[in-house]
Write a structure and sequence with these properties.
- By secondary structure, the protein is of the alpha/beta class.
- Helices cover 28% and strands 15% of the residues.
- The protein has a 6-stranded mixed beta sheet with strand order 3-2-4-1-5-6.
- The longest helix is centred in the middle third of the chain and has 12 residues.
Amino acid sequence: MARPYRIFLVRHLKTTANAQKIYCGWTDSGLVSLEGEAIEFPVAVQQVVGSDLIRTRQTAAIYFPQIDFTADPRWRECNFGDFEEQTYDQLKNDPDYRNWLDDSWNTPPRNGETLQQVKSRVLDALAELPNEAVVVTHGGVIRVVLDTFTQDQRSYWEWDVTNGSIWQLEWASENEFKEGKPCTSLSEVPITAKRIM
């Protein structure tokens, strides 16, 4: 019988940019706090991969302090181009911004990338993951994966992917995953601190 295939996606913890509600794609914003605890995990974690930006590295160091981290720029957040480090209030009257909000999959922010471009690079990275891989990445990237592999009718912007949250996607087999079929199970993993013996 085929072994189930699972991936775990972790959104980085809260950053200074998140606290200020500004768009932060490729800008290297650090975490609000480097305090935190290692976490219990549903599988034995051998390696953690993720975005090369500092906020994901810092989160991986807090959640998985004893595990090697492999950085891969394909796991970066969307490049928001000229909208980087700006707020909704600063951008709301910009017609290019309104066009991007209306069709983010096909319309890029000025000098940025579309969600379709994000999806392309993320799927390339995803295809290389071993079973039960753990990826520390960004809210937008996780939403793209959820949009691609779940049968949920929520739109990209409707997914509530909070800072520090962990998402588990499972397929009946690796073949089903490789064929791009919808996952058979989706859950948000509860976070509990690791008990020190």
